[in-house]
Design a protein that fits this description.
The complex is a heterodimer of chains A (161) and B (248).
Chain A (H helix, E strand, L loop, with lengths): L2 H26 L1 H4 L5 H5 L9 E7 L5 E2 L5 E7 L4 E7 L11 E8 L5 E9 L7 H31 L1
Parallel strand pairs in A: 4-6
Antiparallel strand pairs in A: 1-3, 1-5, 2-3, 3-4, 5-6
Chain B lengths: L12 H33 L13 H28 L2 H32 L8 H22 L3 H15 L2 H11 L18 H33 L4 H11 L1
Helix pairs in contact in B: 1-7, 2-3, 2-4, 2-5, 2-7, 3-4, 3-5, 3-7, 4-5, 4-6
């Protein structure tokens, strides 16, 4: 073995070892690196007590309400399994919308709602013109209707027995 | 040996210097062409986005700069490995020549990302895995430049810098996969080798801009490499001849 081959093997081995160490460290730090936790994590009691943390998920359709005081906004963050009600006083980003992603930083109250100090919008990685988005939406709506109709049709004969 | 085409010949500064000099104008020209085409597609042809409106157009700078910042680091790490294993003179010079461009790209990526994040997310900066690991990349570039500049003996500087480059290379896959591995505010990748979730004209605009950044980076790195070569080899015959020729 020539010395330069030895060196090359040493470098490759060193890199592999370094990669392994990094993988183990990152795996151990997994929960600390995540920017937010999901409503399901909160339901399972994984939320830190008396400490600021972030929750993330989708803003539930039809859940945004302005409260009677005129400044507080209440909405529901969901990961489709569990929901959390969030109260927030402040300016919302433009992309904050029902059915879209959001990340909120704040604390859990004793009643189980979440009081946010900061709300950020999380958008997805899809980029398309509005017409294409509308076409996709319409097609999705038609699909849902069709499925509902089929389910209703399938349910009928059963009801007849 | 003389008859055979030999790649190692180009590892010698004396042959690389004139070769790089003749290639630079082509890379500059191609970069300008790609840049103009990319900007035309991106700013004038590509449609408005359905959720981000016109604001998404910063993607035509942001994504190419981010790709470049990661790729240049990988190339530098490659040169570092070659330099440490084979003791070639050229590899240290190439790594040196690429570092400022890599740092510039990492900075551009973070800066355009902040400008994009404020209107869309509602924050200039969040400590999520993608943003933080990209910041670490910028620090690695700055650290490499500072370390090599602090050591007077260039061979030792190259070795120390090369070691730093190799250790830091673990950060690149972390940046790239961060949006997959952890919950981040940053969205996932829109484009990879097999699929894209962008409208076609948007994608082409972005790819053309990426090519423009590539060609720019190669051109500027070659210009810098030539300067570094002359400076380091100023006591050799070929460098003296070049310098004497320039003074005539």
């Amino acid at each position: 073995m020539k010395s330069r081959h030895k060196k090359l093997a040493l470098i490759a081995g060193g890199l592999a070892l370094l990669g392994l160490i990094a993988a183990l460290v990152l795996n151990a730090l997994n929960s600390n690196i995540a920017l937010y936790i999901s409503p399901t994590d909160v339901a399972q009691g994984k939320a830190p007590q008396n400490q600021l943390f972030r929750i993330g998920g989708l803003v539930k359709e039809g859940s945004i309400q302005r409260q009677a005081d005129g400044v507080t906004i209440r909405f529901i963050v969901t990961d489709t399994e569990n929901d959390i009600t969030v109260d927030y006083k402040g300016i919302l980003p433009d992309l904050f919308k029902e059915g879209k992603g959001a990340v909120a930083q704040g604390r859990l109250t004793t009643s189980g709602t979440f009081t946010a100090q900061e709300v950020l919008a999380k958008h997805d990685e899809n980029y398309m013109p509005p017409e294409a988005a509308k076409a996709l939406n319409d097609a999705h709506a038609r699909g849902v209707e069709k499925q509902a109709a089929e389910e209703a049709a399938a349910a009928k004969p059963k009801a007849g027995y | 040996m003389k008859d055979r085409f030999n790649l190692y010949r180009f590892a010698s500064p004396a042959t690389f210097y004139p070769l790089a000099g003749s290639l630079i104008p082509y890379f500059v020209a191609v970069s300008v062409v790609f840049g103009l085409a990319g900007l035309y597609l991106g700013m004038l042809v590509a449609p408005t986005d359905f959720q981000q409106g016109e604001g998404y157009r910063i993607i035509f700078i942001h994504v190419p700069a981010s790709w470049m910042s990661m790729f240049i680091y990988l190339v530098m790490a490659f040169w570092a490995a070659i330099g440490l294993a084979f003791n070639t003179r050229l590899s240290g010079m190439m790594a040196q020549a690429l570092a400022p461009t890599g740092a510039l790209m990492a900075f551009l990526s973070l800066w355009t990302g902040a400008l994009w994040g404020k209107p869309m997310w509602g924050a200039w900066w969040v400590w999520d895995a993608r943003l933080t690991s990209e910041l670490i990349l910028l620090f690695l570039y700055i650290g490499y430049m500072a370390l090599t500049a602090a050591i007077d003996d260039t061979r030792r500087a190259d070795k120390a810098g090369g070691l730093l480059l190799l250790v830091g290379v673990v950060n690149v896959p972390i940046i790239y996969f961060s949006v997959k591995w952890w919950n981040t505010l940053h969205q996932g990748s829109s484009v990879n080798l097999t699929k894209s979730s962008m409208a076609e004209t948007m994608l082409w605009g972005m790819l053309l801009m990426a090519m423009c950044f590539w060609m720019y980076s190669i051109a500027i790195a070659l210009i810098r490499a030539r300067t570094i070569m002359l400076e380091r080899e100023r006591h050799t015959d070929w460098a003296r001849a070049v310098i004497a020729g320039a003074h005539e």
